[in-house]
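sorry for the late reply, my laptop died twice this morning and i had to redo everyting from scratch. anyway the thing you sent over, i finally got around to it. pasting the sequence first so we're on the same page, its 131 residues, then the predicted structure underneath. double check i copied it right bc i was rushing
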Amino acid sequence: MEKKSVIVAFLVLSLLAVGGSSAGIYYYFQYQALSQRVKDPQGEVKDILSKVGKLIELPTGEEPTIATVQDAERIKSQPFFSKAQNGYRVILYSNAKLAILFDEKGNKIINVGAINLSTPSAAQPELSPTP
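ok and here's the structure:
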C-alpha cells in the first residue's frame, strides 16, 4: 500500500511540474511577443494596414492614426461604433477624412465612415457611417 501512494504522489508531482513548465513557456512567449510590439510599434501598424489593405483600398500619402477600442459600451451610442467590440481597431486618415472600424481577429471591416474634423474639439472627431 505504501508503494502505491508513492507512485500516486510521483504522478501528481510530475503532472504539476509539466503543467507549471507549460504555463511558464506560454507566458514567456507572450512576453516576447509583447516586448517585440513595444520595441517595434511600426511593425504592428504595418501588419494591420497590410490586412486592411487586402480588404479595401487605403488612402496613400499619409500615415493613419490607429487606436484600439477599449470600452465598446461607452461609445456604442455613436452610430459609427454601434457594432464595435473591445479589441477592434479604428484607423483614422485625417487628410482623406476617412475612418475604418476593423475586426483584426475576424479579419473583417465592420464600418467605414467620413471624419468631420471641423468640430470645435478636434480631439474628438465626429464619425458618420457611410451607406
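Residues 43-129 form one domain.
thats about all i looked at so far, will dig more tmrw
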